[in-house]
Amino acid sequence: MTHSDGVSEDVAALAAMADTLGRSGDYRVLQRLVPRLPIAPSVGQNTKTAILLDTETTGLDHRKDEIIELGMVKFEYLPDGRISGVWDAFSAFNEPSVPIPPENTALTGITDDMVAGHKIDEAAVTTFVDDAVIVVAHNAGFDRKFAERYWPIFQRKAWGCSATEIEWRKHGFEGSRLGYLLNGAGLFHQAHRAVDDCHALLEILAFNLPTTGTSALAVLLDRARKKTMRLWAAQSPFELKDALKRRGYRWSDGSDGRPRSWYVDIDESKLDEELSFLRTEIYVRDVEPRLQTLTAFDRFSVRA
């Protein structure tokens, strides 16, 4: 039987039980994520278009490993960062030149048989992405490098990273893993399939953060619009590497054409503070380290 509003009695009963359990304070109930249904693009509203992207690959090295699945969700958002609707979704397999490692199949469920004979059409990807003003991935430092290697259109887009450009701990979360954040929003999903992870990320970005009263997407967009500085601590003393690591510096081994050096990405406003740290704690002299200015158009790219 169904109620007058079209909700079945079984669904209504389950919702009532979940509400009772949640209000008890002794239980926490998670609801299965149901992807939003596509809507027609808004007419006459001041909306912008964005893409959520996720890739599954044969490995972690963007120079030699290959994409086996690409998932994308296209959505529109309002100037205040509220998500107003989903336009479309894209999901496609790609057959790599080598067998998929067993550990990848165990993680993703993607087998050699599933991808056999498949190739992702570049024209279809370009058409899907073309009108987006930003591409968001939950690990843009990984996904952007792979995407740019396969499809040049991603080199021309602004990118945002929902894992690193939102300080989740400051907003009451204990970590930034996708599944954990989704659980924090009261949902769960089938993880590690590309388009499913995009639908999950959409709900996370739509979540209103209690610390700001705005959506997580609004916080991400504000951060993505700002410049960041990449500071290279070239020829820093080896014995001070742990001090650099504690400060958030990462090591570049020079194998990808970048300097062989420790480096850190910081907000432009923190540049003077970071230069002071290097001069007083690392080099103990006046130095002028190499600086790069990064924006959303080159941040997370191999070209940076």
Concise structural overview:
This protein has 2 domains: 192 residues, Ribonuclease H-like superfamily/Ribonuclease H (Nucleotidyltransferase, domain 5); 67 residues. The strands form 3 sheets. Strands 4-3-2-5-6 form a 5-stranded mixed sheet, sandwiched between helices. The protein has a 4-stranded antiparallel sheet with strand order 9-10-8-11. Strands 1-7 form a two-stranded parallel sheet.
Topology readout:
Elements: H1 9-24, E1 31-32, E2 48-57, E3 67-77, E4 83-93, H2 102-108, H3 112-115, H4 122-129, E5 134-137, H5 140-150, E6 158-161, H6 178-184, E7 187-188, H7 194-206, H8 216-224, E8 228-233, H9 241-246, E9 250-253, E10 260-267, H10 271-282, E11 290-294
Using brief descriptors, characterize the structure shown.
4-stranded antiparallel sheet, 2 domains, Nucleotidyltransferase, domain 5, 5-stranded mixed sheet, 304 residues, 22% strand, alpha/beta
Polypeptide structure, described:
With 304 residues, the protein is an alpha/beta fold. It folds into 2 domains: 192 residues, Ribonuclease H-like superfamily/Ribonuclease H (Nucleotidyltransferase, domain 5, 2-Layer Sandwich); 67 residues. The protein is 31% helix and 22% strand. It has 10 helices and 11 strands. The strands form 3 sheets. Strands 4-3-2-5-6 form a 5-stranded mixed sheet, sandwiched between helices. It has a 4-stranded antiparallel sheet with strand order 9-10-8-11. The chain has a two-stranded parallel ribbon with strand order 1-7. A hairpin with a 6-residue loop joins strand 9 and strand 10.
